[in-house]
Amino acid sequence: MQYYKEFVEDAIRNYNSLDYEHIDLYKKYSVSIPTDIGMKGTQDISAEDEVNDFVEKLGVRFDAIISDAFCRSGSESVRILKAEEVGKDIIEGKIFKSSEDKLAAFINATASRFVVIDAKSGEKSLNILVYTKSTMPVQFIVNVGEGAKLELFEFHASKAESQIVSPTLHEIVLGKEARAEIDIVHDEDERTSAIGMLKSVAAERSRLKVNFVYNGGAATKARSLMLADGLSSEITVNEIAFGNKEQKFDLYNYMINSKPYTTALLESGAVLDGSAQCMLKGYAKVANGTKAANSRITERGILLSPDAHIDALPDMSIDYSDEVKATHSAATAPIDSEAIFYLTSRGISEESARKLFITAFIAKYLSNMDNGIAKEVAMSLMLNKLENGTFGNAHEISAKGIWAVPGKKRR
Questions:
Q1: Among 146, 150, 134, 131, which residue's Cα sits nearest to residue 78?
Q2: pLDDT tens, residue by residue, 38-53
C-alpha cells in the first residue's frame, strides 16, 4: 500500500508540472478536457439492475463488467482490482510513465479500477463492458505471452446525469510471435467527455491490431503510442470517428518503427455532420537502424455539413532510409456529388444514396475488425446515429439491415 501511495504522489507531481500538449505542431489543434469534471461532490452511480438491463438490451455477452457501482469477471483471464489492491509487481511493470504525459499522470494518480488481462498462452477471446454514471478512471494492463493469441472487445458506455469525464489508460505488451486484436468502441452519452490513453510494445515477430471506434461523447481526447520494438514486429491502427451536433474529437497516434523489418500503419477516418470537429493527428517515426521498415499514415474525412470541420495533420520523421517504405497522406471533402448522381441514376433515392456512401466509408474501417461481435455492435451504433442522429443510448444490436443497401428491402 505504501508503494502505491508513493506511486500516486509521483503521478500528482508530474500532472502538476507537465503541459497538456508537448508537441508544438499540435498545440494549435487540440481539444481541452478539464480533468476535474465530476471529481468533486457527490454523484449518482449505476445500480446493478441498471447495468444488467443495459446489457440485456444490448444483447451482448460480456466476460467482465466494470462500473462505478460494481465489478464482476467471469473469466480467469480478467482480474479487476481496486486501487488499494494494486501490488508492487503491477506498478513496477507499468510502461506508461507519469513523466511522459500529463493525462497519463492524471489517470495514474486517480484510477479507481485496474483491469489486468493475462493471455499468457493459448487463444483467448474476451468481451468487456465499461459502464458508468460518474467519473471513474480505469487502467487496463494487457499482457499477451509468447506465441499466444488474444481477441479483446471493449465497449465503453455512460449514462451521466451531470457533466463527467471518463478516463481510460491501456498498456499492451506482446511477447515474441504473439497475436492480438484490440477493438475499442466508444458510445458515451452527451454529458460525458472521454480521455483515452494507450501505449503498446510489440516484441519480435509479434502482430498487434488496434481498432478504435468513436461514436459517442461530448468530447474525446485520445492519445496512443505504438512501438514496433521487435525485429519483424507489426502494429496496425485503424480508427473511425462519426460525429454530429457539437461533438469534438482530438485523436493523436504516434507510430514508431524502432527495429529492422518492422511495420507500423495508421488508417484514420472521420465522418462529421452538424458543427462537429475532428483533429486527426498521426505522427510516424522511423528510427535509426530500421532496415526495410514499413511506415504509413493515411487520414481521410467526409464532411456532411458546411459547419463541420476536420483538421488532418499527418507528420513523419525518417531517421533511416535504407530500403525503407514511408508515406503519409490526408484528404477531406464533402460527399462526392458525381457518386451520388451515379447511384441515383441506378434507381436509388438521393437520401438512400447518401446513406449508402456514408455507410460504405465507415464499413471500410470496420471491415478491419476480425471480431464479428465488435464489428456488428460498431456498425449498428453508427447506423442508428445516421438514421436518428442520436448516440449514447444503447439499443438492441441487430445485424438486420447492417450490410443491406439502405432503402432496399431484403427478399
A1: 150
A2: 676 556 777 889 999 9
Q: What is the DSSP letter of 85?
A: G
Could you tell me the sign of the dihedral formed by the alpha carbons of 100, 176, 74, 5, in that order? negative
Count other C-beta atoms under 10 Å from residue 387's C-beta.
11
Helical (H) or strand (E) element with 124: strand 123-132
Confirm if 292 and 275 have CB atoms less than 8 A apart: no
Distance of alpha carbon 312 from alpha carbon 298, whole angstroms = 9
Q: Which of the 8 DSSP states describes residue 323? A: S
Buried (b) or exposed (e) across 9-23, using 16+ Cβ within 10 A? ebbbebbeebeebee
| Residue 243 DSSP class | E
Q: Determine the Cα–Cα distance for residues 369 and 381; give it in Å rounded to an integer.
A: 15
CA–CA gap between residue 131 and residue 80 (Å, rounded): 14
Report whether pLDDT(398) > 70. no
Please say if the pLDDT value at position 410 is more than 70: no
CB of 211 closer than 8 Å to CB of 180: no
Find out whether 56 and 49 touch, Cβ atoms under 8 Å.
no
Q: Map grid coordinates 444490448 to a residue.
A: 58
Q: Does the pTM of the predicted model rise above 0.85? A: yes
CA 80 and chain centroid, separation:
20
Cell 526495410 locates to 292
Contact 168, 140 (CB under 8 A): yes
C-alpha to C-alpha distance for 401 and 99, rounded to whole angstroms: 47
**What is the C-alpha separation between 247 and 263, in angstroms, rounded?**
33
Residues 175, 145 contacting (CB under 8 angstroms) = yes
Alpha carbon separation from 126 to 78, 80, 81 (Å, rounded): 9, 14, 18
Burial class (CB in 10 A: 0-12, 13-18, 19+), 178: buried
Sign of CA dihedral 121, 122, 123, 125: negative
> Please, are residues 121 and 87 in contact by the beta-carbon 8 Å criterion?
no
- Quick one: pLDDT band at residue 406, thresholds 50, 70, 90? very low
d(CA 262, CA 329): 20
